[in-house]
Each structure stands twice: as structure tokens, then as C-alpha cells.
Amino acid sequence: MRSVLWFLAPFAALLALWAAVVAATGVPMRIFPQVTDVAWALADMTASGELVTHLAASLRRVLIGAALAVVTALPFGVALGASPRLSAFFAPLLRFSVALAGIAWIPIATLWLGYGDGAVIFIVWNAMFFALAYNTVLGVRRIPIPLLRAARSMGTGRVRMFWEVLLPGALPSVVTGLRVGLGYGWRGLVAAEIIATSAGLGYALFLAQKTFSTDVIIASMVIIGVLWLAMDRLLLAPLERRTVQRWGMTAAPS
């Protein structure tokens, strides 16, 4: 309970500061809403069913995009990490693509896939793929050479080498890459939904901006932040701590 309260303390301080500044300055709601205005907007979105619709659309897209990123990035990263020739060949392209991953691909994604789920899922996959692949390469390279030589000397085939040596050995870095990549994917999702869809949390932001509903804009931002924080703290951070501690590292990012 103490750690939970300590974790929530900065958010409580931010809310108190927010309420005090808006009340003291008398800024109109069209410029920036009061805390209570945002609370009422959240209540209205929940009562109308709008919140459930946008949440379901965003979560579906981010889960599909994340699954595709894991399925494609892990084999690619392991192959690069295990082969110096492949790594040397693809490393410049990988570094080049990291800077362009995610949001920069939205215009061409809509040209290729049209406006809808396909373009948004592609952006999530694209934003996650390079971060996850890069961390997987680093994880494979950190596996001790004597361990790899011992596995080869025992006649370990490529399939068993992948599942029983390379992937487990790289898992701490893979989980870190998943955590970082999912953050990139979430931001790409919101940006793509603003442009390419008619449902989702990003679209809710865009629609509220057109009607000057700043209370709904801030409410949508709060939902996005809380949802990502819940995914990070309840799923990704515990998974990262368990793998880092299990594989012999002394600390993991919180």
C-alpha cells in the first residue's frame, strides 16, 4: 500500500496544481478545462458508450500490431545476432530505419492500405519492429561464446539452438525491446488513428479538436496515459523484472 501511495503521489500533486492554477487564472474552458470538467467529460463518454467503442478499437489494433511485430522481429533479430555477415549487411539499414519507424510512415501506409484498421496496424507493427529487432540483436550478442560453442559441440540443430539457446539467452533484452517498442507503437497508434480511422482514442482527440471540446481532448489524453501506464506497470515491468533477475542481472528499469 505504501508503494502504491508513493506511486500515486505525483499524480495527486499534479491534479492539485492543475486545479489551483486554472482556478487562480480564470482561464476559459475552451483554452484549458478544470479538473472537474474533465471528470464530467469522462463520465459522459462512459455513459454514452463512446469510451468503450474507442477503447475497443485502439486495443484491438495495438494487440494485433504487437503480435505481428513479435512474430517477425524476433526471428529477424536472432538471425542477425547469430550471423556476423547478416548483421554487417543489415546494420546500416536497421539504423536508418529506426529514425523513420512509426509516424513517418502514416502517409504511405494510407496510400498502400487505405483508411482503416490496416493502415493503423501497419504503423503499430512498423513502430515496434525495429526497436524489438535491435534489442534482440543486442541480446543474442551478449550470450557467452563458450555457451554457444558448447551447444554446437553437442550437435544442437538450428531449431533447438533458436528455442533453447539463442532466444532464452536474449530474452532479457527482448523484453526490454518489447517494452520500449510497445511505447513507440502506442504513440504511432494514436497518430495514425487521428488520420486514418473513424474510431479509436486518437480519433476521439481529433473529433474533439474540431468542436473545440478541450475537456474531451484532455479526457482522451488522460485515458491514453492511464491505459499505457497500466499496461506498462501491470504487464511489461513485472515481466522485465522477472527475466532480468532470472538471467542474472542485478537491476531492471522500473
Automatic annotation (TrEMBL):
GO cellular component: plasma membrane
Keywords tagged on the record: Cell membrane, Membrane, Transmembrane, Transmembrane helix, Transport
Subcellular location: Cell membrane
Superkingdom: Bacteria
Organism: Pseudonocardia hierapolitana
Name listed for the protein in its UniProt record: NitT/TauT family transport system permease protein/taurine transport system permease protein
Membrane topology classification: Multi-pass membrane protein
Family: Belongs to the binding-protein-dependent transport system permease family.
SUPFAM superfamilies: MetI-like (SSF161098)
High-level lineage: Bacteria, Bacillati, Actinomycetota, Actinomycetes, Pseudonocardiales
